[in-house]
Amino acid sequence: MECSSVVDGNVEEVPSKKVIKFNPPLYKQRYQFVKNLVEQHQPKKVADLGCGDVCLLAILKYQKCIEELVGVDINEGRLKWNGSRLSPCVGDHLDPRELDLAITLYHGSVLEKDCRLLGFDLAACIELIEHFDSEDLAKFPEVVFGYMSPAMIVISTPNSEFNSLFPCAVFRDSDHKFEWSRMQFQTWALDVASRYNYSVEFTGVGEPPTGAEDVGYCTQIGVFRKKAEAAEMAVLEHHGEHVYEVVYTTSYPSLQQINYRRRVVIYLVYREVSRLRRKYQVSLRQDELEAEFVASGNQTGKFTSGLPVPVLTEDDKAMEMAPQPFCIEDKFYVPLQRIIAYPRLGHLCGNVEKLREFLGDMIELNCDGSAVKVDLNDCSDF
Ligand code: SAM
Fold first, then answer.
1. What's the top EC group for this one (predicted)?
2. Does the CB atom of residue 110 touch ligand 1 within 6 A?
3. pLDDT tens column, 158-204
4. Is any atom of ligand 1 closer than 6 Å to the C-beta of 55?
5. How far apart are CA 235 and CA 226, in angstroms?
């Protein structure tokens, strides 16, 4: 890209500068940074302040630890247009999350106090503060650090020192009210942190090219953590005002919801019983073939059935001590004690009584209710 500057009314050609391309793109590196923080610190409640097109929220909704995800933006149209990106999909119903997840998008300004934003573990302000004029920038710390007071806050903003590598750059976006050098951002951040009892660490994403390392990262980032004494003193004013307008809300199927847990338990029991029955049928057939082999009087050859050798899963190996499946006439039985010994089913049910309750009338049990009962020769796979 060519770049020119005006000197005394004459257009002066200046050396062209290469367009800098980031791989992955810079915005993805910012989202990845927040995702890494979530993986590292396992927050339950996460807010994205100035969430825009909800791209970050769409990534974070897959994080297993998060139970409440909130986005706030002043641009109502963007929220309404993009809200449905956060809806559960078919896969979320078929393979529900372990924990509940509720997502809410609020239309409102992060410069206003709304008590539904209290008590969060992490608030992300990605490429937000540079859109504030000086008056709004002055209000921001009091609302976000002072009032919302989440345990952790991550703020990203352009590093103006990097702009010298861009062709013709003044500001990177026409709506930016400022872009700060590292010194400016760090001075502001350290002052805010000390006023509201947070610590802050600085980093960034978007590595500078070789030879230009002095300019620092393209996006500078501050990670603020509430100090222990401030966290202990925090009093949550849950009875405050609701200022924001809810524009979108959804909740995800989870194993905390009894209907989903029951469905998953039934599916896993069907699958396991079916697998054990198949294994048993193969071993019966193998015995038959071996008996025929011996009866044929073949003294030389070694017996091989040619049937597939059942693969032992890790669970099978761990469960050698569990009660074994058994067969009476043409019925095949799998003891509930065995089923509950499978780690995943044990985790989902807790005990045999609960397992029995989940199976209800969906799966037949023997007369004393201690084992699942199926036809040995039923070939239908569950
Ligand atoms: N954080 C998003 C991202 O990284 O993709 C969007 C960043 S975009 C550059 C800035 C966003 O901040 C816009 O969606 C804008 O509407 C929002 N915004 C600006 N001022 C705001 C305010 N006072 N309260 C809430 N959102 C605001």
1. transferase
2. yes
3. 999 999 888 876 888 889 999 999 999 999 999 999 999 999 999 99
4. yes
5. 14
Alpha carbon nearest to ligand 1 atom 4, residue: 126
Q: Which of 160, 164, 255 is nearest to 204 (CA)?
A: 160
pLDDT band at 234 (very low <50, low <70, confident <90, very high): low
Residues 61, 86: contact at Cβ < 8 Å?
A: yes
User: What is the pTM for the complete model shown?
Assistant: 0.85
196-220 per-position pLDDT tens digit: 999 999 999 999 999 999 999 999 9
Residue 245 has pLDDT above 60, yes or no: yes
CA of 67 to the centre of ligand 1 (A): 23
Q: Is the CB of 130 under 6 A from ligand 1?
A: no
- Strands (E) in 68-215, as ranges, are 68-73, 102-107, 122-126, 152-158, 198-205
Which residue is it, tokens 């239908």?
Answer: 380
69 in Cβ contact with 101 (< 8 Å): yes
Max distance between CA atoms of the chain, in angstroms, equals 110
Torsion of CA 49, 42, 193, 70, to 10 degrees: 20
Q: Which two tokens stand for residue 146?
A: 């002072």
Quick check: CB of 54 below 6 Å from ligand 1? no
The span from the CA of 239 to the CA of 258, in Å, is 31
Contact 206, 26 (CB under 8 A): yes
Our CA angle for 116, 103, 29, nearest 5°, is 105
Domains of the chain, with CATH numbers? 3-252 (3.40.50.150), 258-375 (no CATH)
Q: Give the integer Cα–Cα distance in Å for 279 and 168.
A: 71
Phi and psi of 246, rounded to 5°?
Answer: -75, 125
Instruction: Average the pLDDT over 122-126 and give the result.
Output: 98
Residues ≥6 apart with Cβ < 8 Å to 163:
169, 170, 172, 179
Instruction: Evaluate: CB of 137 within 6 angstroms of ligand 1.
Output: no
Q: By C-alpha distance, which of 116, 223, 134 is closest to 177?
A: 134
Q: How far apart are CA 341 and CA 363, in angstroms?
A: 18
Q: Tell me how crowded residue 135 is: count the other CB atoms within 10 A of its CB.
A: 8
Cβ atoms < 10 Å from Cβ of 95:
12
Give 369 Cα–ligand 1 centroid separation in angstroms.
59
